[in-house]
Amino acid sequence: MQYHLNGYTYGDPSIAPAGPNHRHPGEQMPAEVDVLVVGTGPAGAVLTAQLAEFPEVSVVTVDRRTEPLARGHADGVACRTVEMFEAFGLADTLVREALWVNETAFWSVEESGNGITRTGLVQDVADGLSEFPHVIVNQARMQELLFDNAKKSPSRHEVDYGWQYVSQLIDETHDYPVEVTLESTREATAGDTRTIRAKYVVGCDGARSAVRKSIGRHLHGDVQNHAWGVLDILVHTDFPDIRKKAVISSEAGSMILIPREGGYLVRMYADMGAVPEDDSEFRNRITVEQVIDQANAILSPYTVDVKDVAWWSVYEVGQRIADGFDNLNDDERAANQPRIFIAGDACHTHSAKAGQGMNVSMQDTFNLGWKLGAVLRGQAHPRLLHTYAEERRVTAQQLIDYDTHWSRMVGSRDSGNPVTPQDVQDQFVRGGKFTAGFATHYQPEFSPLTGTDDHQDLATGYEIGTRFHSAPVIRVADAKPVQLGHVHRADGRWRVYLFADQTGVGAGSTVANWCERMHADANSAINRFTDPGAARDSTFDVYGISQDDHLDVDITDIHELLQPAKGKFGLQDLEKVFSAEKTNGRLLGNIPGLEATQDLYDLRGVDRAKGAVVVVRPDQYIAQVLPLNEFDTFDKYFATYLLDTKVSA
Q1: Between the N and C ends of the chain, which has fewer C-beta atoms within 10 Å?
Q2: Which residues 6+ apart lie within 8 Å of 487 measured at CB?
Q3: What is the pTM (predicted TM-score) of this model?
Q4: What is the secondary structure of 39-107 as a DSSP string?
Q5: Beta-carbon neighbour count of residue 454 at 10 Å?
Q6: CA dihedral 229, 440, 97, 403 (to 10 degrees)
Q7: Which residues form the Phenol hydroxylase-like C-terminal dimerisation domain (predicted)?
Q8: 587 with 470: CB under 8 angstroms?
Q9: Tell me: the pLDDT tens digits for 489-542?
Q10: CB-based contacts of 113, cutoff 8 Å, min separation 6
Q11: Residues 572-610, buried b or exposed e (16+ Cβ, 10 A)?
Q12: CB-hemisphere CA count at 13 Å for 334?
């Protein structure tokens, strides 16, 4: 963490200096705002936290609730989501508080018919997928971390609770084209309305989204007419895997058991059976006692003696997706920019059994947030906003397809086509990359932000369109072992990683030549799209990675693009050059005799003879892999969406 750039700073370094136009506590909601976020669920929390990083962007977040969520709802946090939290500086807190899901147990009916027995035990996340674990944390705590982060940002953002979205009108002749009517939900002012104008509105207001309805979008898909009860409970039990994730199938039905953070607490998803097609009130008649009884029936011969119910609910399994993720029809896109977006459950719904709902919702707005920030700050053309729907609708459909298949396997009672315990376990292993959050692949066929794979052979482990997979390195300036991916902050900047060939990173190297061309050529992307009055790395954050031992890298012989002078004192940033050397166990806890056997080049398939340029989007996805001597493709890529600094925002 660096924070003394413009002078000595004391106190909590996570609290950024307040921006000049931040809203003060208790100050009335403004009449005009850049972005109105509707809803404080996972999607709304990430979007708020991301936009709060940009002091130039004004944001109002509203929710019909009169206070923050306290309990219940989602709890599974995929490895990919923890990586995203690292970009906000929140992963350490999240991982420290969370329960780590290390193994998943599989239970099924004993051949003797005397209840259930364990049929398998599987490592939950395969080795090498991520430096972070799969964890369990209450959705309410996830949201609290993100909103607290927004309060510490230059924007000092706070949520306006007690307001629900009613309607909208769009007038493109106005500087703030979307006029939204809000209605108070607080008891003292219930029914009072007010209007607010915005440049953009994002509906993160759940499956019954008022924003979605106001733009004429509809959810389409299937409901499986099957009910599941969910309990967060404190119990006495003799079930041996109560502190492991467990997938259980018995004659009485199916169950998924999730141990919770903080110890003692456990979540159970219990199969409550088919919902009659002509009985819309079936679910509402199920009581908590019935769910507990069903849990005991499924777990027999084991029992759970429930001492306290922290939260419970009943839901029907259904997989649906919206017919559009913004307010534009296809024939309107060429001449217009979207003004209203929907994200999270507002545009895709599914069961809880794959543990992906909260995670995919957060990735929706992590995708959208940097794009809105770039457009509103005058860095990018508004056509960039079209890529949100292009990328995320495909991802949502992939989630629904997987969830449909997994839900049917877990809840199957089809005697004519039985699903065996081994089938369920095998599918869990096959789907490991998906459930860890790493199946998202922004293919060039549907994502104009993804380059071609012409040079993929230069870095086979950095597949274009996928998330940037971190690896251990040594920071040259101070010999600190770090994860390379952790330099990525949720600040809207592009990361450019220069993996050196065998000439290293010093003067005369191929890396130095790349830096000099980008630095000296007035028409290079770095010069065209970086504001001359801003820090040299304000748009492109460039890093150099050497194959040499860190002791053999001369820190005084590095190009200025990799050691930019910043701030009012022109201080050099010395934390942009790394060594890919084997870390000799230093990232593994300094355990005697434990040594790394591969360096980053081995782990990620980087060509040692040629090196590579890996371009990473602000949301941590790989946009391009290029040779170190290929400049035009790099420049042309950014010219498609970024605005020349000479162009007025």
Answers
A1: N
A2: 495, 541, 543, 575
A3: 0.94
A4: --SHHHHHHHHHHTT-TTS-EEEEESSSS---S-S--EE-HHHHHHHHHTT-HHHHHHHSEE--EEEEE
A5: 14
A6: 10
A7: 447-644
A8: no
A9: 999 999 999 999 999 999 999 999 999 999 999 999 999 999 999 999 999 999
A10: 251
A11: bbebbbbbbbbbeebbeeeeeeeebeebbbebbbbbeeb
A12: 1
What pLDDT score was predicted for residue 276? 81
Give the C-alpha separation, 85 to 300, whole Å. 39
pLDDT at position 412, please? 57
**Strand ranges across the sheet with 245-250:** 116-123, 103-109, 245-250, 253-259, 265-274, 219-237, 304-322, 348-349
Residue found under tokens 């450019």: 496
* Mean pLDDT in residue range 80-98: 97
The tokens for 409 are 């396997």
Share of the chain above pLDDT 90, in %: 77
What letter would DSSP give residue 385?
G
Query: Domains, the chain, ranges and CATH?
Result: 32-72+137-219+321-393 (3.50.50.60), 456-639 (3.40.30.20)
Q: Which amino acid is at 99?
A: L
Q: 241-286 pLDDT, tens per residue?
A: 999 999 999 999 999 999 999 999 999 999 998 888 777 788 889 9
Structure tokens at 381: 């053309």
Q: Name the residue among 304, 301, 274 with its Cα closest to residue 289.
A: 304
CA atoms within 13 A on the CB side of 515: 29
SS3 content of the chain, % helix, strand, coil (to 5): 30, 25, 45
Cβ distance 485 to 91 under 8 Å?
no
**CA neighbours closer than 13 Å in the CB half-sphere of residue 102:** 4
